[in-house]
Design a protein that fits this description.
Layout lengths: L10 H11 L10 E5 L5 H11 L6 E4 L14 H11 L7 E4 L5 H14 L6 E5 L5 H11 L5 E5 L5 H8 L2 H20 L10 H12 L8
Parallel strand pairs: 1-2, 1-4, 2-3, 4-5
Length: about 220
């Protein structure tokens, strides 16, 4: 039976990475909200909140499946997100679905193409993601969609322990955090994203968690 809380010996390092990836943007109204596909329905919940609160007038849900989501969302992440948002009161006519993207780069490029098809050329976007995907999503969008003037990131405003408990699988969360931390530099080197600063305490926390065996999401 899986525990729903972090092991105390790794919790300080996990918190360092958690704080690094959450950009803590102060949200302003933007032209569109983009819900990035994943295993976490909280992304769709947050996108719905932003629409209902007036921050975004249009939502794009983007995502096919990854090996980690095929069982939970057999018809695709974006489709599942749309259904969840409809259940929260978002009108169908303000939701677009992009069902093919299989990584964050494709989330951005395929969403851009879909909006262009609908004659929407946003100057500002809100990227809605898991909390620990914010920094990578931001860096990817800035690289692949340079004409967008404002890129802000949003997630459900949950504390680390509450998020872990909600997912119910601490190992999964930690492995994803470690993997996203590695990708910040690797993807910038490959030209997939802009460079981001990485403080020494983040590097040390990453090393500690790798040494502790949280390596399943490393490239």
């Amino acid at each position: 039976m899986a525990h729903s809380s972090l092991p105390p010996q790794i919790r300080p390092a996990v918190r360092v990475l958690w704080e690094y990836h959450d950009l803590h943007h102060r949200l302003e109204p933007t032209d569109v909200g983009i819900g990035l596909g994943s295993h976490d329905l909280g992304v769709a919940t947050r996108a719905a909140q932003l629409y209902l609160g007036g921050t975004v007038p249009l939502i794009v849900f983007t995502g096919a499946n990854a090996p980690t989501t095929i069982e939970r969302f057999p018809r695709g992440e974006a489709v599942a997100y749309r259904e969840h948002a409809l259940g929260l009161g978002v009108p169908d006519e303000v939701i677009l679905v992009e069902p093919e993207a299989r990584n964050t780069g494709e989330n951005i490029t395929f969403t851009r193409a879909l909006l262009h098809k609908h004659r929407v050329e946003p100057r500002s976007v809100t990227l809605v993601s898991r909390p620990y995907q914010q920094r990578r999503a931001y860096a990817t969008c800035r690289k692949l969609w340079p004409e967008v003037e404002v890129v802000q990131c949003a997630s459900l405003p949950l504390a680390l322990d509450d998020y872990v408990a909600g997912i119910g699988d601490p190992d999964r969360v930690v492995n994803m955090l470690v993997g996203d931390t590695q990708r910040i530099e690797v993807y910038a080197e490959k030209g997939f994203a802009i460079e981001q600063p990485m403080p020494d305490d983040v590097r040390e926390a990453f090393r500690q968690l790798v040494d502790a065996g949280y390596t399943s999401r490393l490239i």
